[in-house]
């Protein structure tokens, strides 16, 4: 359901997107370095899940309707920024000794799956991206409908992005392994992640106030 004539250009555009640092890359890399590969993998899975949801919305046209409503976008910026600020505040308040290590690892894996999921879903820039980017590679030369082509393009992007993020998890998780063995670092790992979430919140809210 993808026009093979546009596929090389689409793959090139995808590669460029992956190589440009963004909030997802920052979140996944920081998570993997601070909490290990397992938690980083769950964060990657959360990002991929949100990508699938947004692909479906773009394919059926719901996201296009939302993207054309300035008030809806402003509300999403505000809610998304507030959510990230709360996650940052919770991380800053959290101590490594609050829960046993095994329970903490399991809890963190679930927590960062949800956080990565909502980080994307509540970011209107990601929604607008799916609305504006995918249609550029929809071709009138094949029998598949616009919705079917956008679904196929979006799924290809999500699958490729997931495996790219796994590479980030492996590299960052390996580099962060020695840090995790450092007791002094473990005292401050939640503070580091709190700073990351507050940075992401400022980035999202800046679009609300600066346009």
Key features?
mainly alpha; single chain; globular; 211 residues
| Rg for CA atoms | 18 Å
Tally the structural domains. 1
> Can you give the helix content as a percent range?
over 70%
On the 0-100 scale, what is the average pLDDT? 77
The biggest sheet amounts to: none
Strand content: under 5%
Number of strands: 0
- What's the shape? globular
Secondary-structure-derived class: mainly alpha
Which residues sit in consecutive blocks of at least 5 with pLDDT less than 50?
A: 97-103
Terminus-to-terminus distance = 36 Å
H and E string: HHHHHHHHH
Query: How many alpha or pi helices?
Result: 9
Mind explaining what this structure looks like?
This protein is globular. By secondary structure, the chain is mainly α. The chain has one domain (27-210). It starts with 6 loop residues before the first helix and ends with a helix. It has helices spanning 7-19, 23-35, 37-60, 62-67, 70-93, 101-121, 124-133, 146-180, 183-210.
Layout of SSEs?
Elements: H1 7-19, H2 23-35, H3 37-60, H4 62-67, H5 70-93, H6 101-121, H7 124-133, H8 146-180, H9 183-210
In brief, what are we looking at here?
This protein is mainly alpha-helical and 211 residues long.
């Amino acid at each position: 359901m993808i026009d093979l004539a546009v596929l090389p250009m689409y793959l090139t555009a995808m590669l460029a997107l992956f190589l440009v640092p963004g909030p997802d890359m920052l979140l996944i890399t920081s998570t993997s370095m601070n909490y290990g590969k397992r938690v980083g993998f769950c964060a990657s899975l959360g990002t991929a899940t949100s990508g699938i949801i947004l692909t479906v919305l773009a394919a059926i046209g719901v996201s296009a309707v939302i993207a054309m409503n300035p008030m809806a976008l402003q509300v999403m910026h505000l809610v998304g920024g507030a959510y990230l600020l709360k996650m940052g505040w919770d991380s800053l308040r959290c101590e490594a000794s609050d829960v046993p290590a095994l329970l903490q690892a399991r809890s963190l894996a679930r927590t960062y799956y949800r956080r990565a999921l909502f980080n994307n879903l509540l970011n209107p820039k990601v929604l607008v991206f799916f609305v504006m980017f995918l249609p550029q590679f929809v071709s009138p030369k094949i029998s598949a409908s616009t919705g079917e082509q956008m679904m196929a393009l979006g799924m290809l992007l999500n699958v490729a992005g997931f495996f790219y993020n796994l590479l980030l998890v492996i590299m960052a998780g390996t580099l962060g392994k020695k840090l995790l063995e450092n007791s002094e670092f473990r005292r401050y790992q939640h503070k580091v992640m709190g700073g990351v979430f507050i940075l992401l919140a400022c980035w999202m809210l800046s679009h609300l106030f600066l346009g």
